[in-house]
Structures are given as structure tokens and as C-alpha cells.
Amino acid sequence: MTEQNVFPNQCGVAPSTSSSGRYPLPTADANGQVRVYFADRELLFACDNIPEDYHIVEDSADTPISKAKIVTFLETYNKIALRCENIQQSFDSVAEQFVWVESAGGVARNSADEVLLIRRNERWDIPKGHREEDESVEECAAREVEEETGVKIASVDRFLCSTVHCYNIYGKWEMKYTSWYAMRAEEGCRLVPQREEGIIDVQYIPICEVESAIKRSFPTIKEVFKTFFTKR
């Protein structure tokens, strides 16, 4: 398969790291709000129209909130909202306190209308991984799916969305920005989980069963599939 076929220009455009701010925002919801996830907990950036189930924290350019305060709030509340005047500026002030990491992954679909899922940490997940130097986002997404599952990617069809999640690894907080794509899988590939990455299983799941399968998955995975089903 040629690079031209695998990474077509019409697949959609992922947000560039050179946006109007220092850091690219994850895909916004219908209200223009953006979310950052800490495992199952959520940090919402919003100017107004904040849902009632969020604990509201005021944020301003004069007194930006610290990473330590965010982590402390999330130890008490499952959902917190930073009410701010400018979402991009508020996001930038938070992001600069973390180690920024870029990655990509995708939902690979076969001709039987099944999608490829991996199982890691007792949850169903979508293949993804860090982008290498001089590698396009689409190339990274396809490579990571192939490495983590053993399935070759026939084409990267379109951009779905971007998500951001944070995690503490060996005492260092990282903020991972992931670009997600819809893909087509080559037929007849043997499913091989990349066990050195903690992946214990790889399966094709019928699309009609995905919602049930990902009930215990992380919120970012649910966001990706929400977009996938909307853009089918």
C-alpha cells in the first residue's frame, strides 16, 4: 500500500499545535467549552452556562490557578469547572504547568462493520501512542494501531476529534493531547496485542455492541466514540 492511499488529503485536518494560543485546545462541545480529563475526573474550561453538577472555581489572568490546586480540588470533586473570561488563555496557563505530550490513535473498522479495541488495565481502550519526530499525525495514528494490535491500516479516512488527559507518571505530571482518526483496517490480519505496552487483548467488536463494551472505559474513549457515531 502506498503512503498516498493510506494518508489521503481528504481525511480531515487535526488541530495544529500552532493555534491562536500556545497550546491547541481539545475539541470543544456545542457550548464552546473544553474538557481535560484526569482518569475518570474532569476539568471543564467555560465562560458561562456551567452545568449544575460541577464545582466552580474562578480563574483569571491576574490569579491563574495552579496545578496543585487543580489536583487538590479533583481529590474532592469528580467534576470541577474553571470559570474564565478566555478559555484559550486559561487553558494555556494550566497547560504550561505540565509536560506537554502529543499522541495520535484511531478507530479502525473492518468490512464486517466491527471496530478494533484493545484491553488494558481491565478496560477497553483505543490504540494510540506518542508521535515521533518528523512523523505526521496521521502516520503516527496508523503506526500505533498497527504496533498495538498487529492489524495493518489500509487507509486513514477522516479526523474525528482531539482529547486531552493528564496523568502522574513517576512523580511527573504530563498533559497528553491526542488526535483521533477513523480508519479502515486491512482484512485477514492476525490480532497480536502489544504486551510490552500492557495490552492483554485485542478484539473486533461489532459496532452495535461498542456502547456496552466501553461502559467502564475512560471518558476520553467515550468522547471519541460519541464523535465516531455522529460522523459515520
Q: What can be said about this structure in brief?
A:
The protein is α/β, with parallel strands linked by helices and 232 residues long.
Q: What's the SSE blueprint?
A:
Layout: H1 3-6, E1 34-38, E2 41-46, E3 55-58, H2 67-76, E4 79-83, H3 87-95, E5 99-109, E6 114-120, E7 123-125, E8 128-130, H4 137-149, E9 153-169, E10 172-185, E11 199-206, H5 210-213, H6 219-230
Helix content: 10-25%
Structural class: alpha/beta
Low-confidence regions: 1-19
Number of contiguous helices: 6
Strand proportion: 35-45%
State the separation between the terminal residues, measured CA to CA. 24 Å
Give the strand order of the largest sheet, numbering strands 1, 2, ... along the chain.
1-2-4-3
The counted number of beta strands is: 11
Output the helix-strand order: HEEEHEHEEEEHEEEHH
Radius of gyration: 18 Å
Arithmetic mean pLDDT: 92
- The gross shape turns out to be elongated
Biggest sheet character:
4 strands, mixed
Subunit organisation of the chains? single chain
Your description of this structure?
The chain has 232 residues and is an alpha/beta fold. 22% of the residues lie in helices and 36% in strands. It is built from 6 helices and 11 strands. It has a 4-stranded mixed β-sheet, with helices on one face. A 4-stranded mixed β-sheet has the order 8-5-10-9. A 3-stranded antiparallel β-sheet has the order 7-6-11, with no helix packed on it. Strand 6 and strand 7 (123-125) form a beta hairpin. It starts with a helix and ends with a helix. Mean pLDDT is 92; it is low at 1-19.
